[in-house]
Structure formats: structure tokens, C-alpha cells
Amino acid sequence: MTEAKIEKLFTPAEVADRLRASLPTLARWRGEGTGPAYIKRRGRVFYREDDLAAYVSDNLRTKTRDSN
After folding, report:
1. pLDDT attached to residue 4
2. pTM
3. Is residue 45 one of the residues assigned to a domain?
4. Closest CA to 11 of 31, 34, 33, 40
5. Is 4 within a domain?
6. Total domain count for the chain?
7. In this structure, which of 5, 30, 33, 64 has its CB flanked by the most CB atoms within 10 Å?
């Protein structure tokens, strides 16, 4: 049997602080599907650290006019 990995989950308030974004901005990103991946459990939103790291990495820019 495979052992499940328990990850620390971050609240929207913690993520807003880490990404320097407001809570309404995170909510808008969730609605638009443009922000970091998230988990919704019993009506509450959580973020995994790996998903936050992937979001930051995917949005890394090396010049002003990157097409993304």
C-alpha cells in the first residue's frame, strides 16, 4: 500500500501575503482560472506549496515583453 504524502496547506490570507496580492485579487484569479492551482474542501479554499512554487515559476519573466 502506498503511503499518502501529507502536505501543508496554505489559506488564501497566507498566499496573499506570500504573493503580495490582495484577497479579492486571489478570488478573481480563481474565478478567471489564472492564479495558482487550489483545493476546495468543504467550501474552504487552500493552496499547496508545490502549486504556489509552480505558479511563481510559470510566471517568471526575463524581459518586459514576454508573450505570457
Report:
1. 66
2. 0.81
3. yes
4. 40
5. no
6. 1
7. 30
